[in-house]
Amino acid sequence: SDFEIRVPKSMAVTTRNRFGETRVVGIAGDAEAAAQNGSIELRAVAGSVRAETSFGSLIVRDTGPAILKNRNGQIEASSIHGPLEAETSFGNLTARDIDGSVKARNQNGRIEVVGVKGEAELRTSFGELRAEGIDGEAVLSNRNGRVEVARVKGDADVRTSFAELRAEGIQGEATLSNQNGSIRARDIAGSVRAETSFASLE
User: Fold this and answer.
1) What phi and psi, each to the nearest 5 degrees, are found at residue 105?
2) Element (H or E) spanning 199, and its range?
3) CB-based contacts of 81: which residues, under 8 Å, 6+ apart?
4) Partners of 129 in the β-ladder
5) Distance (Å, rounded) from C-alpha 55 to C-alpha 16?
6) Of the four listed, 52, 85, 130, 163, which is most buried by Cβ atoms within 10 Å?
7) Are 108 and 129 in contact (CB under 8 A)?
8) Where does the pLDDT of residue 10 fall: very low under 50, low under 70, confident under 90, or very high at 90 and above?
9) 8 A C-beta contact, residue 24 and residue 5
10) pTM of the full predicted structure?
């Protein structure tokens, strides 16, 4: 059965669901949502949010600080007014316009992070890793997947294997490490340390 519950805007909201969709929209308090085998959407939440699900999408837009966890499903986070922590597996993880630091983890899936007003620590495997517009330090780690990083105001530490590594527009120092894959670096303001094997380095 479907339930629609209306609460005073200032209240905090906690939900639990199994095998169904959860949506929380337009509250001024904090929100916590947990689900199994179902999607979660949190939108226009002024307080902090915490959400966890599996085998469904997890979408968060225009909220306070967020802690998000998914298993076997995608995460999309945008316009987060504070730091973001996100973790998933076997699905894409996308974060845009984050007003704080970002920590993102994925396994066997892509990560794309654009527009971070703080540091970024991003790790995945067997999927592309892309970061652009990081206002602080960027630490990117991948295994068996392409990495692309651009427009970083701090230092960048970037590592991968068996795929291409590209770094561009780094205002600090750059440490670039690859195994069995090429490295291409340009417009690095600070010093560069780069190493690879069995591939080109430019």
Assistant:
1) -130, 140
2) none
3) 62, 63, 64, 65, 99, 100
4) 111, 147
5) 15
6) 163
7) no
8) confident
9) no
10) 0.95
Q: How many angstroms separate the CA atoms of 39 and 19, rounded?
A: 9
pLDDT, mean of residues 45-59: 97
Residues 33-48: tens digit of each pLDDT: 999 999 999 999 999 9
Residue 40's nearest CA partner among 3, 69, 79 is 69
Burial of 193 (C-beta count, 10 Å sphere; 0-12/13-18/19+): exposed
34 Cβ neighbours under 8 A, 6+ residues apart:
15, 16, 17, 51, 52, 53
- Residue 64, Cα to own-chain centre: how many angstroms? 15
Q: State the pairing for strand pair 93-98/111-116.
A: parallel
**Measured distance CA(81)–CA(99) in Å, rounded:** 5
β-strands 58-63, 147-152 pairing: unpaired
Q: Please say whether the beta carbons of 54 and 71 come within 8 A.
A: yes
